[in-house]
Amino acid sequence: MIIVPPLVFYSYFGIKKVPSAHQLPCPSILRGGVFFCPLFLHNELMSNILQQIFKDHYEEMIYISHPRPAIVENVDKMIACGDASFGGAMYGCTSCGEMKFVPFRCHSRFCPTCGNMYSVDRTTAMSFKLINCTHRHCVFTIPEELRLFFLADRSLLNCLFSAVRSVVLRMFHKMNKSMNFTPGLICVLHTFGRSLQWNPHIHCLITEGGVADNGFWRKVSHFNYRCLRDSFCTALLNEMERKIGKSFKATKAMIYRDHKNGFYVYAKPNQCNPKQIADYIGRYLGRPVIATKRIDRYDGENVTFHYNRHEDEKLIIETIPALEFIERLIQHIPEKHFKMVRYYGIYARHRECDKKLYRAISKEKHRIYLSFNLWRVSILHSFGYDPLKCPCCGKTMTVLEIYYNHKPVSLQELYERTMIKHHARPSPGSSSNAYCSML
Q1: Torsion angles phi and psi, residue 115, rounded to 5
Q2: To which H or E segment does residue 347 belong?
């Protein structure tokens, strides 16, 4: 075995030595006796202010707030997002020897960085389902008297989805009971308002039209606003009484007495045509709880953030203790495997007659849209630089090795797992280079 001193390795590839804190074992492709390898950690300064707030007050959150297991899991992921000690991918330039280590992300919806990427992927998946017709964006809200019920028992959030589904489908069914017109619905649950307070409500995207059992499409441009309010109020209260029991009857009677016009439902016509549908989905149906740009200042004890008040769009700047800010955020973390986005009507079924409906985005364009969501392309569009472009010679860097739990992972094994996942059989002459090309 040939021992290559570090200084010889650096001078041969023309690379400056970096501090020992930024060094990891050299990839096996270049190992051959090399004991040290320089690293330039990708996104070393990507830790955001939200991570810092939770790191500083993590123990207080655990021992004072007593969070649910789902909260602890998501917070731990968010804090460790981008931490190189949890693994990553080693990239190297085959021309000049420049190397870069890209740490793994947490893929948690609670993380502002990964949550935005999740929203982009979710928005793309929604867009592929949409029919090429005008959609109506509706918002189904509940009064303040009922909000604490959903906070105490999160299983009641399913009642919101059930109520919205039954109200909309019943409204279309009453138009012509014999033909049974069915619309398409995409429902997204938001549990937060602009001030981060607990305010569960449903954003719903409804097709302005429905398809009959015989395949006939009927355009519907008028939604009975009063019918939606009264029907949603009745359907939700009945669902809650069925879940909670007889003890809810007194509250139900009080709600009927104080809200004689039903619950507020926003269902006014809006310019939500197929060309603007992707922007509409991304804006209303896929945003995280708070963006880091809304956090103005953090001094270690207090957090200052801003928002535009919903009633008059007035700019509100609020300063609250860090622990209160954390509690406002973590209450919106859903339970594990809880579906925040649900499809109903023609968007949920798979019938042969529905395949004849003209989609807003054809299948031929799906590959193009998905290509924009790849990691390399997303970084290029968001920050204006190519993360795999060698800063020295400008050529594309190649995956050398994957690290996980402080150990290198075989690229051949990852490639075989990927092929099995997609129900394909690796070719006899396949190697890890095929997996590298997919990255």
Answers
A1: -65, -35
A2: none
